[in-house]
Amino acid sequence: QVHLVESVGGLVQAGGSLRLSCAVSGRTFDIDTIDWFRQAPGKERAFVGRLNWRGNSAYFADSVKGRFTMSKDNARNTVDLQMNSLKPEDTAVYYCAGSRAGNSIYWGQGTQVTVSS
Do 7 and 108 contact (CB within 8 A), yes or no? Predict the structure, then answer.
């Protein structure tokens, strides 16, 4: 079992920045990547970005490319999602997931991010 806990999100103005953390514990050898997803009101859950758990390679959805980055903090055992130049359309519940072979197996509880215009 892998346990994932997202940090508390928040309210930020458009153009601002926010950093989310995903604390990872448990059988971490069971996962290949940590992925971030988001779900906006009335919409389906959407992929945001992916970080290789054993490396530093990452890639992102086109909607956030150039604005969002991901990094791993080995001391804290977290994967952080740095969100810059936020837009109102980034408003969503953000989830981190532990994935293996492209399948998201373990999920955090989600955290709300609201971007005001």
Answer: no
81 alpha-carbon distance from chain centroid: 5
pLDDT at 56: 78
Spatial contact of 110 and 97, defined as CB atoms under 8 Å apart: no
Closest among 21, 33, 37 to 78, alpha carbons compared: 21
* pLDDT for res 107: 97
Tell me phi and psi for residue 41, to 5 degrees: -55, 130
The residues with which 89 forms a beta bridge, in sequence order, are none
Report which of 101, 88, 92 is spatially closest to residue 37, judged by C-alpha positions: 92
What is the C-alpha separation between 104 and 98, in angstroms, rounded? 6
Q: How confident is the model at residue 18 (pLDDT cuts 50, 70, 90)?
A: very high
